[in-house]
């Protein structure tokens, strides 16, 4: 579904990504782990079209995302990708329901349909009684669940999460991880998650380990190791 081919990223003579290949399938939760500075966030941002690679291509099904520019790229990103960051980035002047609706309104979907889906998602995420609260009246875990609902509003092909539980205590982090697995099981939702969390990574469907700008394990298809593919499935 999402395929990255030979991705490189250079900042003048700093080679941050050195030829990364990835294929992510629908309904998979893929985690990207590795030491600080290995290139995880850079890779996630490139996969999510938030950053451009120096070389290589990112494809979503049969669309070459790397070739898209300007408002077309923004439209495709808003419609097919959801994002969750370490800090929720909810807009303080809007309540939970309104925050979740915003990417749906930007996508041009009928307002009533967006509101209905936002309410459904917030209810699914256990926030039925919190929909009209502004972010500052929500706990950290609740704020992050609103951010998850916002990421899901346009029914994205893939959700990219960069340290989504990095700012949560262990109980709230565990609850959010369980939510990702529920969303995968119920809706076949695909996630790519950069994480340092030692509980989440081993539970994911596939753990890609990055070292010094390369994926060094977890990428059975890249390595062509049939036995790894069989173990994973
Ligand atoms: N805009 C930039 N300009 C120059 N160097 C950058 C830029 N963005 C990232 N880097 C460098 O690229 C390398 C990889 O950064 P990246 O944030 O992808 O690492 P990471 O694996 O996500 O690390 P962490 O776990 O600490 O978040 C680092 O050496 C970083 O300093």
Automatic annotation (TrEMBL):
Keywords: ATP-binding, Nucleotide-binding, Transport. SUPFAM superfamilies: P-loop containing nucleoside triphosphate hydrolases. It comes from the Bacteria. GO terms for molecular function: ATP binding. Residues 2-233 form the ABC transporter domain. This is ABC transporter ATP-binding protein.
